[in-house]
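re: ur question from yesterday

yeah so i grabbed the chain u mentioned. its 71 aa long if i counted rite. heres the sequnce exactly as i have it in my notes:
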Amino acid sequence: MTMRQRQIAPIGEAMSDLETAAQQAIAAAGGDPVIALLNLMARNLELERELALSRVAVSNGFSRGWHKARP
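ran it thru and got these structure tokens back, copy pasting raw so excuse formatting
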């Protein structure tokens, strides 16, 4: 997926799922988009760490090659 400029949905059409999620993240951060972005980045780091741990715990054969062995 490529990043694009924000587009306003035509009247009567719903926002995209990503736009809705972004609005919810900003609302959860008290309306501060910088705090929302920092929260999302922190959560992404947590998920990347969990994924790295799962790569170590699960063999390449068991995962049927879903993840490649890292150098």
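noticed a couple things. The chain has a mean pLDDT of 80. also The two ends are 27 Å apart (CA to CA).
anyway ttyl
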